[in-house]
Amino acid sequence: MKLLIIINDAPYGTEKAYNALRLAMTTQKNHPDMKVRIFLLADAVFCALPEQNTPNGYYNIERMLKSVIQSGGKVKACGGCSEARGIAKLKLMEGVRLSTMKEMTAWVMDSNKVVTF
Predict the structure, then answer these.
(1) pTM
(2) 3-state secondary structure the chain
(3) pLDDT-flagged residues of the chain (< 70)
């Protein structure tokens, strides 16, 4: 089985990215046979930037994404969205790569479940 989680919102300001990653991590823990994939769209491309520094006790999207990747999850960020926000040439977290709508469409068509945040 394959789960695709599409995140559209910025890493901080709302809890959409946080809740999407909680779902990804819980799925990996409780359903190890499920392949988890995450596609970052719109302001969610900022989730892929390294060296996020959050206050103690506050969730950290970078650490959460790293956990998903270390557990076998795949993460792609929209290249067009990254270009529009001026971050396409910045270094992304290890394990995240820029992608296209064509690749996102292929993931959607290949997934058993698609969830958007």
Answers:
(1) 0.96
(2) CEEEEEECCCCCCCCHHHHHHHHHHHHHHHCCCCEEEEEECHHHHHHHCCCCCCCCCCCCHHHHHHHHHHCCCEEEEEHHHHHHCCCCCCCCCCCEEEECHHHHHHHHHHCCEEEEC
(3) none
